[in-house]
Amino acid sequence: MIRRDRTWSSGAGTVPASPAAPSNPARGTGVPAGVHRGRGGEEKFGETDRSDAWWLKPLLQALGLLVLIGYANYAAILGPAHYQYVEGGRHYLSPFYSPYLKPAWLPTWISPALLILIFPLGFRTTCYYYRKAYYRSFFADPIACAVGEPRATGYRGETKFPFILQNVHRYFLYAAIVILMILWYDVFLAARFLTPEGHHRFGIGGGTLALLASTTFLTLYTLSCHSLRHLIGGQIDCFSCAVAGGPRHKTWSVVSLLNQHHMGWAWWSLFAVCFADFYVRMCSMGFIHDLVFFPFSLFNNAGGIGL
Predict the structure, then answer these.
(1) What string of DSSP letters covers 257-288?
(2) pTM for this entry
């Protein structure tokens, strides 16, 4: 694979021509007929010469996804009774239910969270990293490098249904950005406490910190998205030749830096959003006494900012 130089240039960028595609590729393999595909495509499932614990990573990934996604399904489908905590001037809303929509036509047995979660769920399901994680952990395709695969022939990649639907990832990104802005508004509400006198004060509670951490990690995960990086500058070879090339290059550089840790943001954001729902749920059920610290008042009687 040829690496393209994506640095700022004062003139037109030149990119070496890509090598010609191999002729007569073997059907479904991605390599020319008769060319060695690698050990994983020839050995029986699980056979390998590797001496390391290659099975540990896909095992941990599978356990992590089962636990966190299992909890998310419980919270969204079976736990709508404790989706928020409104008491003592607090207003904590679970990120699984934000924005909260409950139209009159929605049957009582359907959780309102299902109207919203289809977008963040679609964003994560089609995410490039998560695709790698659950392909290896649940489909064993491939389970690891240089390890025998369950299917050595007939590989079609993501060109057939239902995997071709992974191409809608960019559109789920657009929806995720909108929901992300709403979640930041929820953080603001979680830090805005109503006093018995009817005034508002800025406060920091356990729920405030839980929602802040959740939204922060969700922001880092979203902004490190491969599709977002491509939208900003992945389709051009010369930033100085493009419209608004300077700002686009700086933005692309920041997103590229975040993208280096996309796997970490993916896991931390999934854990954080589950923990935020868990904290709000425990407060609503009375198992946690939420402590609040008021560093200063947000609004005084005249509507201005006061100390």
Answers:
(1) HHHTTHHHHHHHHHHHHHHHHHHHHHHHTTSS
(2) 0.79
